[in-house]
Amino acid sequence: MGLFSFIKNAGAKVFGIGKTDAEEAAEVSAEAAAAKLKGEEAASKKLEETIADLQLVVEHLNIKISNDTATVTGAAHDQSTKEKVVLVVGNSNGIAAVDDQMTVENPEPEAQFYTVKSGDTLGKIAKKYYGNAMKYPVIFEANKPMLKNPDLIYPGQVLRIPHLN
Q: Which one, out of 21, 56, 68, 151, has a CA that is 20 to 30 A from the CA of 28?
């Protein structure tokens, strides 16, 4: 008999059976969007739990993730807590930006942020910002509880560099 050519999706339209490519794509897209939203909500809740586990207290903390941006709202007791929350969220896998909309009950000077480069140590960073490598414990303390060991920092990680009093 031979090979006959047909319009691929006409059957679904003519007989009302099956789905067109466009219908299938729309369905897959809707399922993917729902799964992504569910994943973003789960990631938001996990970050909120992590912040609570780290004993960073923020009243009415709310984290909303959309694509690779996290929006953080709530009232932090002090600037240090606010900055640590931003760092916990921003140093999480999949987050490229943090929209910080938190308020601070007891304002104080903002710390600087520093992105760790290959070969960096807390001593080298302290030397750069404070002129004294032996001031590295100030940076280490400012980044607790996210840092557990002053020798364990990694490229791409963002650290708080507080002002010296």
A: 68
